[in-house]
Amino acid sequence: MIISTLFFVTIFTFLLAWCTRSQPRPPLPPGPKPLPYVGSFITMIQNKPAFRWIHRMMDEMDTKILCIRLGNVHVISVSDPKIACEFLKEKDEIFSSRPDFMSSYLTSDGYLTTVLVPSSDHWKNMRKILAVKILSSTRHKWLKSKRDEEADNLLRYIYDRCEINFTVTGGIMNVRTIVQQHSSNVTRKIIFGSRYLGKGSVDGGPGEEEIEHVESLLIILSYVYSFCVTDYFPFLRWITDLDGHEKIMRNAIRTARKHQDRLIDERIQQWKDEWAMAEMMNQPRIFDRAIHELDSVIGKEKLVQESDLPKLNYIKACVKEAFRLHPSAAFNLPHVAAVDTTVGGYFIPKGSHVLLSRIGLGRNPEVWDDPLTFEPERHIDGDNEVVLTDYNLQMLSFSCGRRGCPGVLFGSTMTVMLLARLVQGFTWELPPNEPLVDLKENLRNVFVSGDLISGAR
Ligand code: HEM
Which cofactor does this sequence's record say it needs (predicted)? Predict the structure, then answer.
């Protein structure tokens, strides 16, 4: 009996080993050959900013999925919608965590916010509270009057600058300041019940405190998940600050916290309207079509209201096109693999950081015709309502799955309303001697490189 059991166990073990051997592990996605221990870290530092280096490599290697080893972490960059869906839809459960990074730890005050916290029961509870208590459609309706107040303030501020203070301002505005300040005004209004952190300024615009606050939030946003050395060599964390990221983050966080508590930095987005305005000014036919839509849907006598937004398909298509072509960051927030798995036929080791490329998806020539041209019409499909989400991940606006953005309704309403009011309320012109807006991206990030200075009437 013992001998026959041993015999069967041996045969079974042998068969198991044979089967495993006959199914070799799939390869890692293509990528540069890593050095022992440091991986490709040195090359990455020599080629900063990392996101441009990664995209260059994807082009050179002609691949839509790339694997780079940094320290002992596999960083996987993806610009193919099918593979992206496999990560965030079919295998969503495996990829619903976030990495533990210095920047995310400091920004979220030890992971007290939903966006950055690694997967845990705490994260699940926070998401539930957000969905039910803060970002529900009932709460959205309840907060309408506060958003309306800010939409009116926006017009009043631009009007005052252009008409009443014309002698001082020459009617010239920085569209970036308007867009950034408006989104934070609304957020502050909703969270604190006040648009000002301090006294504000006499013309109704941002005061010193608001400018300082938004600037520090934008620094935080551009340094969260920005390939900091100690994130890939965690034993160095809190001991050294080799690339200076920690000092920059700590200073920006200190400044932001001076004016607020951590609730607000949960999500202050650079709304996409600055890029939309810049592209529309360069192509007057797009501006004209947007104005025509506003005139025919709303008329010239009335200001656009939130209830009109579902009918403004062209304005929404302009916003969506700005999301596609000019995302606010090169990559989506990282997702971490909880176990070893296979995606797109490649081996994805446990602990890999998956970065869906917003630039790569939105500008993928196999998906989008003439991808570098701003063309809102591509999102219009007969009379179907244009929505800003894209759950097929052909571009990345609000993402999807367990980590998908719970603020879709709030974010869409704010972004579309802001653009509609800017287009409807004023005639926008480029300053004299500037025939076109310079649409170059900043080398270090994907923001408009210069200020979008414009005259409003
Ligand atoms: C135009 C505006 C917005 C855009 C484009 C946007 C987009 C995104 C994206 C791409 C993600 C990451 C999804 C992923 O990891 O796959 C995200 C996450 C998130 N967003 Fe938004 N968002 C916007 C506005 C908002 C607003 C207004 C709020 C709330 C007030 C919000 C709350 C969140 C939260 C809490 C998460 C983290 C979800 C999690 O990790 O579980 N977002 N958003």
Answer: heme
